[in-house]
Amino acid sequence: MNILFATSEATPFCKTGGLGDVCGALPRELAKLGHRVTVFLPAFRQARQAGIPIEPTGVYVEAPIGQKHVRGHLLHSRLPNSDVEVFLVDQDHYYDRPHLYREEGEDYRDNCERFTFYCRAVLEAIAKLALPVDAVHCHDWTAGLMPAYIKTLYSAHKPWRGLVSLLTIHNLAYQGNFWHWDMALTGLDWKYFNWRQMEFYGNLSFLKTGIVFADALTTVSPTYAREILSAPLGAGMEGALQHRQADLHGIINGVDYQEWSPASDRFLGDHRYDRQNYAEGKAACKRRLQQRLHLPQRPDTPLLAAVGRLADQKGYDLIVRVMRHWAERVDAQWVVLGTGEPKYHEALSSLAGEFPDRVAVRLEFSEELSHLIEAAADVFLMPSQYEPCGLNQLYSLRYGTVPVVRATGGLVDTVVNATEATLANGTATGFSFDDYTSLALAEALDRAVRAYHHQAVWSQLIETGMRQDWSWGHSAEQYVRLYERTIRRGPVEVQA
Ligand code: ADP
Ligand code: GLC
Fold first, then answer.
1. Does residue 496 register a pLDDT over 90?
2. Which ligand is nearest to the CA of 227?
3. Per residue in 24-33, pLDDT tens?
4. Do the domains spanning 2-254+473-489 and 266-469 agree at the CATH topology level?
């Protein structure tokens, strides 16, 4: 099959979170299964400066955006160590910026225009490049208009006629909602601006448009696929999703173990380790991290870490509260790596200033440090409000770092809470809690720290975790079956 991936992130070109990891890995996995995947990205500054060879193609695409005619140039590259082709839509005015979507806590004001152009440019590129495409696989709101274009403006003409589309929802809370007058930028008929189709509480919604017009929908774990059918995790779209329930599938994300294995991790230097020698390997990484972050070199003090976007989703309000309480009383070290909401930058920096021996915070995006932290930490924290899948808990398992997670979304599907029963039957891999409260997080952490001081229990948890296999193979096969079914069935009629 020929599959087109429409995504705004793919490692190693550009990434702000797990979407980048998924769209950098899944195409290569599909290629291994014999399919041809072509990835389309906006040519963000970050992607162009990633150090990967990128060539101009001399092929231009054009699209009307409101009253304007906008032109873009297609650049060509490949996902490293693969045949997977990558095209980047080059349009400096839209994409040559310091960040992908937002700066200093504010979305770029022309995001609607930037991603409307992206959606149309990719569809135009299919024709300009004479690219064989059997299905268009859209990711998140940024590609949300594509299914609608395919079924409306482009439906009568080759090569788009009869093309099917799939939409993967990586995070339902990022919806791409814009004021209604932006409808005019899209060139789509105002008749689609109704509550069953593109309108969402008075706004134009890219994500809802994708949900309504795509031929198949997926999200990134079975539990999240169920949770989004009702409030609050449906984030207002539960009605639209219930309507499409028969076409909505939960496919769990995998891990790219080429990138994320302590045995081959390029960021660990001499301190690489595997299941046989993890104790020495992790101890060496812990020493290195403590040194690097100016924490006291204490091998037997539990090191608790979090890496991620500093967004409400990730439970940093709970982390900050428990940290404040524990930093005064409990012998534990805390490490946080992340960027995001200014309120968390402030709260975390002030804790680091107050407790320099127990709290170290790095407010930056660092691939290298994120790998070192996975290897060095004893406990990885993910007390998320909601979590479509989550990748860091999966990386943690492989690195022998015990995850403490809130029981939501993909975290339910991937971490087995340590209880007497799961420890006895050898399935326990971490600690989870239900209530979204700092008390519940503190209790789970307390259980984890007690287990940490109990050598036999701790090594059992680590070893069970390290044995888990969350590689992409199985999930990639599920995507293949879904592509096949969707193509066989052909375009689904949209309810007017
Ligand atoms: P989400 O996609 O919601 O952000 P995931 O757990 O699926 O959460 O994926 C997050 C990815 O982004 C992981 O690869 C994580 O290491 C990475 N990441 C997030 N913040 C940072 C940061 N500040 N520095 C380096 N990597 C980060
Ligand atoms: C989103 C989700 C995260 C998921 C990632 C990749 O950003 O928040 O849970 O792992 O997408 O699918």
1. no
2. 2
3. 999 999 999 9
4. yes
Torsion-angle region of 130 (φ positive above 0: left; ψ -120 to 50: alpha; else: beta)? left
Q: What are phi and psi of 179, to 5 degrees?
A: -65, 155
Span from the CA of 57 to the centroid of ligand 2 (angstroms): 32
How far away, in angstroms, is 141 Cα from ligand 2 center? 13
Inform me whether the pLDDT recorded for 104 exceeds 90.
Answer: no
Q: Which residues contact 222 (CB under 8 A, 6 or more apart)?
A: 250, 252, 413
Q: Which fold has domain 266-469?
A: Rossmann fold (3.40.50)
- Average pLDDT on 152-165 reads 96
Distance 307 CA to ligand 1 centre (A): 7
Strand order in the sheet with 359-362: 359-362, 333-337, 303-307, 379-382, 402-406, 431-433
Query: By alpha-carbon position, which residue is closest to atom 12 of ligand 2?
Result: 170
DSSP conformation letters of 429-488: -BEEE-S-SHHHHHHHHHHHHHHHTSHHHHHHHHHHHHH---BSHHHHHHHHHHHHHHHH
pLDDT greater than 90 at residue 153: yes
Looking at domain 2-254+473-489, its CATH class is: alpha beta
Q: What is the mean pLDDT of the chain?
A: 97
Number of Cβ within a 10 Å radius of residue 101: 17
pTM exceeding the 0.90 threshold for the entire prediction: yes
Confidence category of residue 105, pLDDT binned at 50, 70, 90: confident
Q: CB of 454 within 8 A of CB of 441?
A: no
* Residue 396 pLDDT grade (very low, low, confident, very high; cuts 50, 70, 90): very high
Q: Where along the chain do its domains lie?
A: 2-254+473-489, 266-469
